[in-house]
Design brief:
This protein has eleven helices and eight strands. With 242 residues, the chain is of the alpha/beta class. The protein has one domain: Spore Coat Polysaccharide Biosynthesis Protein SpsA, Chain A (Alpha-Beta Complex). It has an eight-stranded mixed β-sheet with strand order 3-2-1-4-7-6-8-5, with helices on both faces. Strand 2, helix 3 and strand 3 form a beta-alpha-beta unit. The radius of gyration is 17 Å and the shape is globular.
């Protein structure tokens, strides 16, 4: 068994080293299971030293995607990956060995087609705590995968065409939706792991005003197509603030 770990990265020279350090430490769980693994970083048209930082910190492959879009970056990383399973981790997140172990166990069960993880933001601010708790409850109740940690059988990923290139945000929710018929057909499931939450950055709470964040959330709820297919409307991911 081989697992390809794919990190989409846009201007992530500051946080990518700690993410890769956590990934490499967590890979010991894969080695213990007798699995092979590789780390693929997709430089999503960065204007900083993301690519060289990735190489310097042990990425096995670094691929370039010129169109600045998270879905395209993930798909570009997957295009050069050769694992039996794919694991997508955001470049501002830090997985643990325990989370990787739980992922191995889920895959080995033979009952899982894909899965995600609950998250914990690296901030004690009340908005981070409340926002994380609300998302985790929805994620577990609805079986929705957060884009910061998604594992999926490579054959299933390719069968449904990967992530949608039409979306600039919420592409992981669309991905979950499109996987469900295949999960039912193969009598497998999509799981949300919760014993060892993924630690992810709360920097958007520091970099953007509550008004900016609320405007995006309301747009996604009431005008989802117009908002999520518009790069400017989803600027929280694309304006380069770090």
């Amino acid at each position: 068994m081989k697992l390809s770990i794919i990190l989409p990265a846009f201007n992530e020279e500051k946080l990518l080293p700690s993410t890769l350090e956590a990934v490499h430490a967590s890979r010991t769980a894969l080695t213990a299971a007798g699995w092979e693994s590789e780390v693929v970083v997709c430089d999503n048209n960065s204007t900083d030293a993301t690519a060289s930082v990735a190489k310097a910190h042990g990425a096995d492959k670094v691929v370039f995607e010129p169109v600045n879009q998270i879905a395209r970056a993930r798909n570009a990383g997957a295009s050069v990956a050769n694992g039996d399973w794919l694991l997508f981790i955001d470049a501002d997140s830090r997985p643990s060995r325990e989370l990787f172990t739980a992922t191995v166990e889920a895959i080995r069960s033979g009952r899982v087609l894909a899965g995600g993880s609950t998250v914990r933001m690296d901030s004690d601010e009340w908005r981070a705590r409340v926002g994380g708790a609300v998302w985790n409850a929805i994620s577990r109740l609805r079986g929705l995968m957060a884009g910061s940690y998604i594992f999926v059988e490579a054959a299933a990923f390719r069968e449904i065409g990967g992530f949608s290139g039409a979306l600039y945000a919420a592409e992981e929710l669309d991905f979950t939706k499109r996987l469900r018929p295949l999960a039912r057909r193969t009598r497998r499931k999509i799981v949300i792991l919760s014993a060892a939450p993924l630690v992810t950055s709360a920097r958007k709470l520091r970099l953007y005003t509550p008004r900016e964040i609320h405007r995006l959330i309301l747009g996604a709820i009431f005008r989802p197509k117009a908002t999520l297919t518009n790069k400017e409307a989803c600027h929280l991911w694309y304006d380069g603030r770090r």
